[in-house]
Design a protein that fits this description.
Length: about 425
Amino acid sequence: MIRLTQLAVAKRSVTLLIATSLFLAGIFAWGQLNQELLPNISLPYIVVVTPVPGASAQDVASQVTEPIERAIGSVPRLQHVNSSSVNSISIVVAQFSYGTDVKSTQDTITQAVTALQLPSGSTPQIQSLDINALPPLTVSIQASGSTTQAQLNALATSTILPALQGIGGVSKVDMSGAIQQRVLIALDPAKLASSRISLSQIEGVLQANNLILPAGSLPVGNVSIPVSAQHQFTSVGEIRSLVVGVATPGAGAGQAAGAGAGASQPTGAGAGQAAGAGASQSAGAGASQAAGPATPVTLGDLGTVQLVDVQPTGYAELSGKPALVLTISKTSDANTVNVVKAVQAKLAQLQTQSGSAFAVETVQDLSSYITESRDSLVREGGLGALFAILTIFVFLLSLRSTLVAAVSIPLSIMAALALMLVAGISVNIMTLGGLAV
């Protein structure tokens, strides 16, 4: 230590250069460090949530919960397993000993649960408990002026959600309280029977006309650009006018219906019959008769096609009026404070562009706690450093000793900030408390 001190005194220019570099590095690190409320703590808990639509609590317990418990039971370092089985959902919580590699354990449980033969429609969701994974911002938007709730729903779906999801650091945006719409197709059994068209035939036509398929590639210089062929329904009228089959009148009671391009379907009502291009038909006592002109059968001919409202699974009110709730989640490496500021700025911009068609109210903002904790600890740490310097001067009455303390205290903090940036440690109430001390 003495030789280091002698070297620092002997090489004053080098010492000043190093001190200046550490000070500048600390200032740079302060602007680059992620700001969180708490440090990145991995709690040794794994939660497996499995929806089982329409199943009773007994069926959920026997067909889903118990197999998942047996699969988790073989995972190392397991301490306790708690489960809950209710109608249509199974929840299994596994607790492991502290020090367990949560990510590796989650991957092991995922592989074990995926290999299970669970009921059809049951897709387990396996998650670990992460304090910093909580949504940093929850806002409520409400229609204002002459804007109706339906217009607000459309605006939120078409404009607000895509704009927020495109912000850097935002992982997803969940919306609740919105009334969504879906296409409802109600088929008439009598019309289906008379046209000889089955439900599976109609499902096949709908799927074949609303899909995206790869169509090869297009060479452009040395690059090959993939090309896809797609067709998606854009209106209810397009679905209503979709041809799902053809009806061909024939002799006797025979009639044929075919779906798709050149599809054929054999039917019979006391007579053999086939439909298709150039098809021949025999009926009665072996007499031959050409089929009549084919009549297209549309989906609207077999029932009703309409756009209906789907009742929301959640409901929100703001000051006694209906509202929409937007929950914004961030990526694991994003800065909470910066993400919240960017989302709030984007909402203010969208509000201005829409002509104040909606009002925004903040429900929960975790960045405010982070900012308050940061400012408070910085203020208290600064006061502590100031009083320490004054105390040294009062008791020692030495300008040199006071100057050493006045330089070493902020320099040590700046060096610590630079090391935190290198180690990937965030600024939170724990690290700020240590810096203040």
